[in-house]
Amino acid sequence: MSNTLKKVYIETLGCQMNKSDSERIYGILSNFNYVPCANENEADLCIVNTCSIRKLSEDKAYSKLGVWGKLKKEKSLKIGICGCVAQQEGEKLLKRFPYVDLVFGTQNIYELPELIDKKTRVCAIREKPVAESDFNIIRTKSLNAWLPIIEGCNNFCSYCVVPYTRGRERSRIPQVIINEAKNILKEGFKEITLLGQNVDSYGKDLAEKPTLAGLLREIELLEGDFRIRFTTSYPTDITDELIETVKNSKKICECFHIPMQSGSDRILKAMNRRYDRKTYGELVKKIRNNIKNVTITSDFIAGFPSETHQEFEMTLSAIDEFELDYSNTAAYSPRPNTPAAKWIEKYVDENEKKHRLAVLNEKVKQMSLKSNNKYVGCELEVLVENFKDGKFEGRTRNNKVVHFQGENTKIGDFVNVAIDKASTWCLFGVKK
Ligand code: SF4
What we know:
This protein is an alpha/beta fold. Among the domains are: 6-124, Rossmann fold, CATH 3.40.50.12160; 379-431, CATH 2.40.50.140. Helix content is 34%, strand content 23%. The chain has 13 helices and 19 strands. It has a six-stranded parallel sheet, sandwiched between helices. The longest helix has 24 residues, at 350-373. The protein starts with 5 loop residues before the first strand and ends with a strand. Bound molecules: iron/sulfur cluster. Iron/sulfur cluster is lined by residues 153, 155-157, 160, 162-163, 197-198, 234.
C-alpha cells in the first residue's frame, strides 16, 4: 500500500452492528494511510456497508453504488461493498455492477488492506467466522461508543437473514471486552452500548459461561462517570439476574429493546419465534415491576405471509396492552434463503401491507406521545450531546431525547432537567 494519505468514505446502512463494523473498517484502514472523510465526492475509496434485513435497505445500497459508478467516470475512485448483502450475494455483485472493485463479507473485514491492494476486481466471502481479534477501531461518534460482545444468531426466525449472513453466535471473551471498555473510557466516551444480535445470549458458547449480567457488573466497576446500555434482547433470553442487575445499578440505563414482532400467537409460531403473547406480556410486567422509569421498546412486522386482518389487530392491541414506549416497524419483505420467502401463495397484498404499516406507525406515534407525557413534571438526568438552535439536546437514562435550556452547560455533561413539555418524539425542559 502506498504512503500517500488517502480518503475513505463509508455509507453505513442498517443496524448498530453495521455501524460498529464500519468503525472497525475505519480503524483498520487508518493503519494503511487512509483517513475517514465525510464527503463521498472527496473520497479515494467509497464503501457501502449494507443491510439485507429489508428489500428497501438493499435497494438503497444499490442506488448508492449507481451514484458512485457515475462519480468514477469523473475521477479515480475505488468502490467497495460489504456487510450482509455482500455476504449473501458475493460474486453476483461484481457481475451486476461492473464499476465495483471490491466485494467483501462480514467475516473478511480484517483482510481489507490486502484486498484493496489487489490490481484486479475482487470478491472475498468467508463462510466460517474469524477467530477473536482486536482490531483497531475509529469510533465516529464522540460520546457514545458501540462495543460488540457477541455476533451472529442461532434463532433462525423464518423471515430473517442474520443467521445466514452473520453466522452462529460467537461471544468475545470477557477480558477483551473489559479492556476495550477501559480504552473507550480513556478516550472520553460517556456511554458504552454492548452490542449483539442477541445480546442476552452472551457467553453461552464460552467454556466459562459468563453472562451478560456478570459482564455488565464488571464494566460498572470501571472508574468514571458513564452510562452503560445493551441491545438487542430476545424475549426468552432475558434472565432474572439481568433484571436484578439493571435494577441495582447506577450506571446501567433503564432500557430494554425486546422485539416482539407480532401480537398473534399463530404468526409468532410461523415466524419461528420461541414465545407467545402471554410470555412476552409477563416479561414486560416483570421488568416494569422491578425497574422504575424503565423504557421498553420493540420491533414489529406488518403483513407477514398469511397474516389476517384480525391477527394484525392483535399486534396493535399488544402495543396498547404492554404499553410499549416505542417500536421500530417494517412491512414484511421476503429475504433470500429464508423459509418465509418461499410462502409466495400466502403473501399479503402489497397495498394491504402498506396500509397495515401506516396504521401500525400511527399506533407507535400515539404510544410514544403517551410514554413521553408521563415525564412532564419530572426531573431527569440528561447526557448533553449537542447544542442546536439555542438549545441543548441530550438523552435521558431511559433514552428519551430532551431539548432544554440552561446555563453553564457543556457537551458531555450529565445534568438534571425539569421536564415541562412533551411531544411525540421528544421532551422539553429547563436545567435545574
Ligand atoms: S433473533 Fe431472529 S430476527 Fe433476530 S437476528 Fe436472530 S434470526 Fe434474526
